[in-house]
Amino acid sequence: MIKRFKCEKKFISRGILFLVFAGVTLAGCGSNLSSKVDANNEENIRLKDYFNWTPVLKGDKAFPSAGHGGITVKSYINPIAKTHVDNSENPFPLPEGSELAKAVISAEGTSSKDATRVYFMRKEKAGFDSANGDWSYALATRVNGALVFDPSVKPREALCVSCHSKFAEFDYVKTIDIYKKQKPM
After folding, report:
1. Which of 4, 11, 78, 145 has the fewest Cβ atoms within 10 Å of its own Cβ atom?
2. Which of 8-22, 37-51, 147-161, 170-184 shows the lowest per-residue confidence on average (mean pLDDT)?
3. Does 74 share its domain with 161?
4. Which of 134, 125, 126, 180 is nearest to 161 (CA)?
């Protein structure tokens, strides 16, 4: 009986050692998995707060997004972008820290809190991707009831960049032009 216990103890110790080693290895990878778990990190706060940003269309109306396959979306701009656009005759280019969110909803009248996925664009520091306006892209999808960022979508996602490059005159963002045209002069 004592011999069996020693064997089990040795096996358990090796298992714990493996788990600790695997955790350290994964945490050291470029994926930064530990920050994905932290509910207070910047990215997770964005997922909980984007629907409190300023709606692009008055009344927080939904519209079909032709550039995203005709899906029904509600679009939002963050306070940095809103302040800049509201106080600028020509808002382009947008300042660093400007963010836009496009929440995919099932139909008009659906809350953005129930979005099945959310596309994000963020204006990064100058030099991030100068050829494409220094924008980064992200996609969050609903998994088990919660929005989580999709790690397969890279910050310089080629598909996003190729479509948004059509709007270079609007700093790669058509949404701001739509918002600006609705504002009372």
Report:
1. 145
2. 8-22
3. yes
4. 134
Q: Total structural domains in the chain?
A: 2
**pTM score, whole prediction:** 0.74
Report the alpha-carbon distance of residue 80 to residue 136 in Å, rounded. 16
Same domain? For 20 and 109 the reply is: no
- Helical ranges in the chain per DSSP H: 2-28, 33-37, 42-49, 79-86, 158-164, 174-182
CA distance to 21, 29, 32, 38, 128, per residue, from 18 (Å): 5, 16, 19, 23, 38
- Are 11 and 48 in the same domain? no
Residues 58, 145: Cα–Cα separation, whole Å = 28
Domain holding 12, by residue range, is: 1-30
- 19 shares a domain with 37: no
